[in-house]
Every structure is written in structure tokens, then in C-alpha cells.
Design goal:
Elements: E1 4-9, H1 24-35, E2 41-43, E3 47-53, E4 60-66, H2 74-84, E5 91-97, E6 105-109, H3 117-126, E7 132-137, H4 147-150, H5 157-180, H6 182-189
Parallel strand pairs: 1-4, 1-5, 5-7
Antiparallel strand pairs: 2-3, 3-4, 6-7
Helix pairs in contact: 1-5, 2-3, 5-6
Length: about 190
């Protein structure tokens, strides 16, 4: 049996949202697809997906972005899991995280959703919270701005200066998690940066 993983980037569909903080998970999936020369195409799971490989001879990767809005991401993720016969522990969910500073990554498996409605819906649809997550820090809004508005804003010009590196690091973290396991990826990406 082929070692298959599904990598899902959470976000909202449509041009209005593609550059927003809430869509950073989808940006990471786009980076992974770009590295492999793949294009995500319509899939019957209500997602756009591409099948590829971590590298030749290594794990198969299904890269996916749900077509649904963030808060109802679970249906497409569950449909992908059923279609490919992949258990929750091999579904890597990449998403934005308010409680982590911008330009920081944290990886974990299981636990709570931390108020993230996309993660909550995926856990509900899969029937378990025990899936690996690559949490991309977007930080909290300044002042009294509502977090719900903050996540739907585009990244600031200062953030965009380092966003490319953050997305590349998150894509590297996904690859390392699949290749070497969660602990190895945590040891690398949880360390303070120079």
C-alpha cells in the first residue's frame, strides 16, 4: 500500500479572500504544489486537489484546498479522506493561528481548536481532533480591532516583506513532518530564530 498523506490548506474561496491572513494555509498548499509543478484541479470532494509525491520513491501527497468557506471546511476534508482511504493521523491541516506571533510556526497533533472554526469543523467531520496541524502565526490584531475582521484583512506591507519566507518555512515544515515525523519537525520549527 502506498504511504499516502493529505495536506489541506484552510481558507476561504474566491479572489476577495485569497490574499487575507485567514488564507495563509492555502498559500502554503500553493507553495507545495508550485515546488512540484502541480496545478490544483476540481475534485469531486468539493475541493481543488493535486496528487504528487514528497519526492521520488517517498510518500504520496494529495495537496488540497476546500472550495467551501473556512467554517465549513470539514465536509471537503472528510470527503478527501474517504476518497483516498486516509486516516486522520495522515491528514495535515495547515491554518492561520491568532495566538501565535506573526512569522512563527507551531506544529501539533490533536488538542483543542483554540476558537478556530475551520479546525473545529474538520475535527467534527473527521470524528476526531487527532490530526497533525501546521499552525502559521498571524498574531493578534492591534488595539481593539475585532479578530474576525483582522483575519479577513490582507497582510500589511511590513508583513508581506517576510510572508514569502514564512510560507516557504511552513511548506518545509509540512514536508519534514511527513518525512521525519512530528517531533523532528517540532524540534526544527519551534526553536527560536536567529
Amino acid at each position: 500500500m502506498v504511504d499516502t498523506w493529505i495536506v489541506v490548506g484552510l481558507g476561504n474561496p474566491g479572489q476577495r479572500y485569497e490574499a487575507t491572513r485567514h488564507n495563509v494555509g492555502q498559500m502554503v498548499v500553493d507553495e507545495l504544489a508550485s515546488r512540484r509543478g502541480e496545478t490544483l484541479r476540481a475534485h469531486k470532494s468539493n475541493a481543488r486537489a493535486a496528487e504528487s509525491w514528497l519526492r521520488p520513491g517517498a510518500a504520496k501527497m494529495v495537496l488540497a484546498k476546500p472550495n467551501s468557506f473556512m467554517n465549513v471546511s470539514g465536509g471537503p476534508v472528510s470527503a478527501l479522506a474517504k476518497f483516498y482511504g486516509v486516516p486522520a493521523e495522515r491528514i495535515v491541516v495547515v491554518h492561520d493561528e491568532l495566538d501565535i506571533p506573526f512569522d512563527t510556526l507551531k506544529l501539533k497533533t490533536g488538542g483543542g481548536h483554540g476558537g478556530h472554526n475551520g479546525v473545529r469543523d474538520v475535527a467534527k467531520a473527521l470524528g476526531t481532533p487527532d490530526f497533525p496541524r501546521v499552525r502559521v502565526g498571524i498574531g493578534r490584531p492591534p488595539g481593539r480591532q475585532d479578530p474576525a475582521d483582522w483575519v479577513l484583512d490582507p497582510f500589511s506591507s511590513a508583513e508581506r516583506a517576510t510572508l514569502t519566507h514564512l510560507i516557504a518555512d511552513a511548506a518545509d515544515a509540512v514536508e519534514q513532518l511527513i518525512d521525519e515525523g512530528l517531533t523532528s519537525a517540532q524540534q526544527r520549527y519551534h526553536a527560536p530564530r536567529d
